[in-house]
Protein 1
Amino acid sequence: MRHDFNTLVDSHGRAVYAAAWRILGHQADTQDVVQEVFLEAFQRFADERIEHWPALLRRLATYRALDRLRQRRPMTPLEGWAVADPGEEPWAVAAERELAERLREAVAQLPQREASVFCLSSFDGLSNSQIAEVLQISSGAVAVALHKARGKLATRLAQITTGE
Amino acid sequence: MSDYTGVNGEGRLQDSASLLDRAIEAVRSEPLCEESLRETLIRLREPATPSSATHGPCRRASHRIGRRWLVAASAAAAMLIAATLWLWHPRASWAEVAEALRGKPWIHAIAKGKSGESHEFWFSAANDVYADRRGEGARFIDSRLRVCYEYQPKEEQILRTVPNESQAGQVLAAFFEGVMRGQMRIGSVFEGQEAIAQEERRIVEDGREWLEYDLTTRTAQDLASDRLARMRFRLDPESHLPHSMTISELAKTGPAANELNYLFDYPDRGPRDIYDLGVSRTVRLIDRVPTADLSQIYAAVEASRNRFDSYLGIVVGQGKEQPWHAGRLKAVVWRKDVRWRVELAMFRQSPPPPESDADQVKWWKQQLAACEFSPIEVCDGQTVYHCNQGRWTATRTIEPKRGLQAQGQAADSMAEMSGYPVSLEDKKHLFTATLETQPNDGPADSLLVHYQATGAVKDESTFRDLRYWVDPGKGDVTLQERLAGARDPDGSTTTVTRTSEEFERSPRGIWYPTLVRETVVRDPPGAPSQESEERVTRFFLDFEADVPDELFQPVDRPK
């Protein structure tokens, strides 16, 4: 069993990490999500037959990372109750980095399916049929969700950058 | 992004798409941190191993006895020798007695009088609790929560009141604080009583040696009074623990008019509420506590969080509607006073399903044997250390006087931080706080502490409307927390709701949540609400686990 687990980590660890990293852009969050994904996947393994490990892992990585992304929200920093993360990187000032962060913020506001499809397509470079397999939906549904997601995100980014 | 200029119409759409593509490329071009990736995979693949890397400074938390403890411990001892209105302290043995009592969580004494009257009391300095039964009546005083429950058998009612300053425990604590400072005179607290004689001796009874002390008092203002009282106090010379106390009402001549003989013992557990004293739960409760005020709630919340028992906690994350044994291990935490240790725990194989009648805490604890651990954070009471790849680094210092100061993942791993959140406090000028004693929504029979941001909170993206529904019947534990009013630039708002659905009580009687459900709802303008996947966190706390001081040092645990 342990050998299986290690094999799984060796085979898919980088892909899971990369998928979570692109959605989150934050190391500590990414590490947490990767751990969650493997543990959840392995615990599912005890209950059900896993037909396609890569698809399951990628799906979990996308879902969990999006969950984490949506939970990010600043609290007003008050002495004694603001949750500080001493490991958090300082906010990057480079324009491209800022643009990436704005995109993540916008993705966090999308419905789950649209966000997942968009991330798998745009960040991970999967084809529509591959996404359909990962998310266990039809290719047509992928295409529709991707179209909607791109439209919303493009509008949202434009609003942000023009201050509307 | 200053180079982006939007135009109307089709050109603008093209620009938007172009901007999106640029943003996607920006995300994709962010390099993976290979070290972080490697660290993550090592954690997953291999058991945590003691590192040869330089460890942070190992500090043993010094055993500090604060003034508050002194007062409480003194009060515990005081209860032994002054259960009613008599007082005295055996100078020669005081330090030993205090030391012996220090290790006893509860003091219990029971007495029967000549006339059939009875009195029984419990006292815990650690819990700030005094309880007693006299005849059919009962009383439970929780000084920590500043509440007294008194059962009145004739009226068949329980009165809930604020403890009176003159009640047992309160007075005795003040008295012995003075004694310890050498400033107390007999009679300065128990007005009207003065000592007229005292004796100290060693006696042997049935082959066993005892230290025995007598104190005789009378009413100071009435020198001719015939009403004298004598307290005979017996101490075990080996354990230094009080064994018995006899209080006698004396006449100037003749035998004692009345006598009450207390026998002491030292149980591990004591009563947790008035009902543990045998009072029926069907008895009506009359609340005479003045309208609860915020400061009282703040004090109770802070006290419960800081005085929470030592424990080993297992934190499990779940999806919606999963049974208690499902889900993933989020963390394992050890807590003792203001110190904590948090580790990740990973199953190498899925645990077997439990028996239908399995003890949940025991079952989860058993599963830890099949886990591998990676330490995350330790606080030794003075400094917080993070562990990264076996290397411990001091990240911040804390003020022990401010109580438990866990943050981030450590705080998320502690049930008492969910039950008594740090954010439920006086927010001064940033928020206005109101207390609603009969809120229109939220859990039944709760009080609502409602914060609303003032103009001093400038950031629109922060939560501006915070609501905490607390249960006054459970020590003001938070039943529900709702954070709302955070607004995104597009006008959508986010609401986070955490609801504690199941509770347990610690051995000290502090309520804590065992199941917390969290939902996040986003409301875009003009569009349906979007609800995220519901998350459930379960806390399994073992208060009987060994929690040695060594755990709170920034080193790996022995395998």
Protein 2
Amino acid sequence: MKGQRRFIVTMLTPAFFFLVCFYLYPTVFNVANSLTDLSLFGLRCGGDWIGVANYIDLVTSPDFRRVLWNTVIWLTAIGVTVRLLAGLGLAFLLTSRTIRKYRLETIGRVLLLVPWATPPIVAILIWRWMLDTRVGIINALLTGLGIVDQPIPFLASAAWVWPALITIITWNTLPLVTLTFVASLQSLPSELVEAAEVDGATRLQVMRYIYIPHLKPAIIVMGLMSTFWTFNNFVYVWLTTGAGPGLYTNVMATEVYIKAFIDGRLGYSSAVGVLMAAIMAGFGLIYLRVIAQRELRESF
Amino acid sequence: MRACFGCAQIAIAAVAWWFVGSAAVAQTPISFRFNDPEAPQMRQALNVFEQLNPGIKVDMQRVTWADAQQQYLREAAVGAAPDVAQLAQVWPRAFGAAGALRPVDDLIEKTNIGVAGWDQYIARDMQQGADGKTYAIPFTVDTFAMVYNKALLKAAGYDEFPKTWQDLRAASLAVRRKTGKTGFGFPAGSCGTPAIWFFLNFYWWSKGWALIDKGPDGKFFINISADQIAEGFDYYDQFLKDGDNPKSNLSICLWGAPEIVEDMVKGEAAIASVPDAVGVQIVNTFKQRFPDKQVPFAAATHPADVNGSKTFFGGRSLGISANSKHVDEAWQLIRFLSQPDPTFTRFYTNYVQPQKPILNYDRLPAEIAPGFTEQIKLARTWGPYGLGPVAIPFMWNAVGRAAGSVFIGEKSSKDAASELREAIAKELAKNQH
């Protein structure tokens, strides 16, 4: 027994060491920094203790509400919803009888993988070129077909910049969501659907009483994971718009960068990072406790 | 016999290898961080330096300007910064205070520097820390001037370049209405280092206003009201509203963007405000593309107001990192690069040196040289902006973002101006001792 315990501890030690070095220590270090006035120009001498002043500064700053709104509503809520709905739609399309009839499943899945295989930086460059006001193909089509008189500055217009950003993010990240739903749909026994149709269920009823309940676990998991990935997203926003125009698309992740590396306020940016982690931790807890447990219990 | 011959071959090879190895070991390696686009040209200059100094090997590193500041500071904090670094002219003070640069006063005293000595350098104040020590040597100087297409302006009814801000506004609109081309096409985008920061400061400075100034008591203060800030925003916003600066320029952030150069070369835009290196690019690109056509460009000073026409001395400096183990070699490199020949005469020819005896634009194309020469006489250093307690990167980003929010209609110019002034005031109060 004693030998067994020693063996277990020995086997777990490397993993533990890894967790401490690369997760626990950076987290504690970041929290400690957030309580100081550490600056990029004062790295050699460190920062002075200022308590929660950075957090007070953050929540009372005039831009905080806008940054939070952008992150929670535009980037995460709307972005994740669009991705889940589009993923569901594509999944149903790929598993539809029509696609199977014409043997298009393989081509469909290969085409679906192209955006996923594209590195984010490449995807962003391609889309920025397509959306460009002067040479972009989208504006060329819109003006050529007479839909608009003047080209639309998609990435520099308050009306269009968020839809454009969400389109880029969705395009690049949709395949994973879609394939997860496809796998879930393929595990649904076809006899259930056939039996419901024989009993006179409409398409809407089949969708509501058979497909959606079966997909719920997948939707819950993808919803949670998409939310975590999207909330913390920096690459797409920074490389597409630089948090502009103005600060119109500034989100919490880009705020961390701007405060740390442009304003030089490392302590303040650490506070933003800690707040982000706290929000996601709180969300995850509520999500798993309230929604996931209930839904997963009902499903099984 | 064969075995002896083989042994002799090995022995000869070993001796030869030892000699080569010894020669390599005798060389002192130094690293030089160079961030301008003219890397191949600078490498050629460094090759000449190595030929003249066989005991020194220069490893050239590159980082984008957008990342250069924070990269260097992080490296310096752990003692890993390059021996010599090309810096923005406004960085040495803050870098010196951060302990990231080695003071060079003792080296200047030992060997002096430049064609006519340290006294003949301009912008020396920007190289000094709060402790009075010198932390870098100015390497290049540049300024912005108005490069314009004479034919387009003439078609709009202007034989001469406008002298006032209102004249510029009218001329730009006239170009648009009479020729259908862009008038004053300036980058109106937002990013961390947007061009609009320069254009707004030119406007404010010409009226005697400034975001940061220094009083006779030595304290720094904000020398501009919210209404005056808003006036600047409104001025440039009008170009976008009336369409003589196209809305597509809201997507462009930097002063040397390819779109700005292309528009000028192709005759799609009449006026641009650019530094000398970009002015050279416009003229040379036109000459390459249209060798049979007469160059339509000229340069002029920015519009003037009660305080005259005002731009800034921009440029680069060279500093030695505080952790450098090869200070003498690093200083030798800086002294070499501070001479006109061969660096500026043969390789790095688009740039001007900040030393009074050679501060001229003789190497600029004849079409734009007079305008830039006139403008640099009217330039000022960043002065209180660089020496004061509010960091330029903070103001640069804040001004660009505020202007951007006005240009896209998110905020009124008054609201944006008030918030900007408040943010700078807060930073000033926090950092001024």
